[in-house]
Amino acid sequence: MAHVKNHDYHILPPSLKPLLSSIAAFIMLYGAVMWMAKGTPFIFLIGLAGVLFMMWTWWAEAIKESNMGDHTPVVRIGLRYGVIMFIMSEVMFFVAWFWAFFKTTMYPMHEYAGTEYQEPSIHAIDAFHLPLMNTLLLLISGCFVTWAHHALVHGNIRKDIVAGLAGGVLFGVVFTLFQAYEYYELLVHEGYTFGGDVFFGTFFMATGFHGFHVLIGTIFLLICLFRARAGAFTPEQHVGFEAAAWYWHFVDVVWLFLFVAVYIWGQ
Description:
Blueprint: H1 17-38, H2 42-67, H3 73-106, E1 111-112, E2 115-116, H4 130-153, H5 158-188, H6 198-229, H7 239-265
Antiparallel strand pairs: 1-2
Helix pairs in contact: 1-2, 3-6, 3-7, 4-5, 4-7, 5-6, 6-7
């Protein structure tokens, strides 16, 4: 049950969760480096399990705090600012890959390690085939999420909220399957490689990390779907839903830039 507060702020009790989350993230990062260097994913998987466990327990605690009335309007403003700053950091993460892509495309290095630079034999991807289909899938999923958000804020129509989130999740899953198929075709039949050339490296890092963000966003929406079916979220209090919607729209916008820059202009 909600308890009465005599101030607008949420005073958190001492917790080891920030420290344990940082340790788990460091183990995962160290394990990823060891995996790439020595081909052993064991340490990475331990760190990943730790990160997932801390995410689950910490966010479950935040949901419990919200249900108890700790997330006052002032606290919700702070949470929204936190989500915005997180998305801004994600924007700068992708800016790095766009920078690398445009630099190597417009000003390629003609000499490397004393040898003449050899441009890769690139089989251009038809941007208006599978990439265009994926673009439409993400845009449609964004429309579903916007529909759910509108239904929540302007009437709290539960069936529309659930339907909109279910549509967003469905199209997110289809996008991931189509991108996996695209990677299979490029690697097996078109001569693309994960390494060996800057173009291939920037292509797979930019589109691959975006695909990873789509996967995270799909899970984010799926959790919101389960919560909405259980009766969570109100027109006044739905920061978790807003965070998922903002993140999903960020993923949509990044893909539009990738589609124009990498698939159309870059080829």
